[in-house]
Each structure stands twice: as structure tokens, then as C-alpha cells.
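In this section we walk through a basic example: taking a raw amino acid sequence and producing a predicted 3D structure, encoded as C-alpha cells. The instruction is simple. Fold the sequence below.
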Amino acid sequence: MSEAVAIQGDLFALDSPLLTEVRGERSLMAFPFFALSKGKWTKPLAYKTDTVSIEIVATAKGVATIYDKEVLLYIASLMVAKLDAGVGVSQDFYFTAHDLFRVTGVNGSARSYARLSDALERLQGTQIKTDIEAGGEGQAGFFSWLSEAQLHYTKTKTGDKRLKAVKVRLCDWLYRAILRDRRVLDYAPSYFQLGPIERRLYEVARSACVHGVVEVDLDELRLQLGYQSSLKHFRYELKRIVDENAIPDFTFDLMDGPATPAQGRARRNAGAARVRISPRPLLASD
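The resulting C-alpha cell sequence is shown next.
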């Protein structure tokens, strides 16, 4: 068999469709690795505490956004599904755009395919540096979410391109985190209908409330979300979201005064507003 034929055969050994729930790696839920933007964001992003450091550098196409993250969630879900089934995994994944769109609730328009191409380019181009360990290993220097991203097309008789499959290679850091640490959590199906800030609020709540109610200073929550505007503006936006009560599985309450220390973190900004995040009670049908 020729090499060309072998590659073509491998191409159609698809990892999709995804038959289980969407799941994500917990560190990517907890910390601000993505721009809260639908449009291009070209400024560097940074997040730093006593225990965590994250630095994000953009390319000309911009930083990977919270919407681009959908691709990583889909890949992570495929990987976890394979691990749960006892199937061997590699860092290479082949899937159809149609199945990705089905899972994330995107229509399969020409514009959606163009956005997918841009998302893959940003995921491959964005540079990340962090001291968060993955799979028991630290990693110095920058890496990108995808070390390889390709769109495989066929052509019709009229010369029109038809996207056949997407091929990506997941970065070492995220691959190790999923494979070895298995710190993955499921996502609510309605996550993909949320706006950028609401998505991050859900993710922070999902990663933090594993053992129940938590409290956090308002400004600390702003930074953890990766919200780039002022604290005053964030409080206004959060109040709107709290009033709408639209975050699936969790409620948020704005309160005056400093937050109770959580997970060993020292209290900051005495007198500042705080936010209580609570899991919603499960219904009997759940």
C-alpha cells in the first residue's frame, strides 16, 4: 500500500461522533486561559496569584477566545470517552466539523466553517506559559493548544471544496493533564448557549463548588474570569447576571464585606464586596 493511500485510510478512522457528555479539564475551567471576546483580541493576557501564573501571547490573528475553546472541549470529551472505554489514545484526533457543530449547537453554514478555520489557527498560534503542572510534570517556556491543525477537503466536479474531516494534535500539557490527572468535569448542555462572561462564571463555579458553597472576593472573581474591564463595570455585569439567574446548576449572590478564605487563600481587600457561589439543589428527577 502506498503512503498516500495509507494516509487517506487513516483520515477516515474518525474519532467522532461524540456519544457522551461534554467534559473539560478542571484547570481550564478554573483559570483564565482564553479571551472573553467574540472578536479579535490581540493584547497579551496575564493572571498571577501566590500559587498560579499564566501568560498568554497573541499572534496577528489574536488570542484564542472562549468560543475557540469549544474545539478543545470537544477534543477533551472525545479523549475521555476513549479512556473510559479502555481504548488507547494518542495526541492526534480526527473528527468531522458536522459533529463538532452538532455538539456545540452551531449551524453548519459557510460562515461557521470559516470561523472554525480561524479558531483552529488561533488555537495553534496562541502562546501560553503557566506554572500549573500537568500529569505530574512542570513545563517551562511557551506552548500552543494545538501543535497541528489541518482541514482536509475533497473537491466536487465543479471544483468546490467540501470539508471532509479535521485533524488536530493536542499539546503535551493538556494531553498529560487529561491522561494522567483525569481531573475532568462534565459540562451542562446549555453551556454553549451562554455568553462569554456567563460561560466563565459557570466554569469557575463548576470547578470550585465540587464540595459545596464557596465565597470569593469580587475582584478576585473578576481576575479569575479574565474580565478585562474595571471592577465597577464587572460588578454591574455580575448584578445583571445574578438578577437573570441564568447560570445553569449554580446561583450567585453579591454581598458586602470580605470573603471567607477558601482553599487556603488569604483574605484580600478587606471591606470589598464578595460573591457566594452555591450549587442549585438537585430536582427529584435528577
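Looking at the output, two observations stand out. The chain has nine helices and eleven strands. The two ends are 52 Å apart (CA to CA). In the next section we compare this with other chains.
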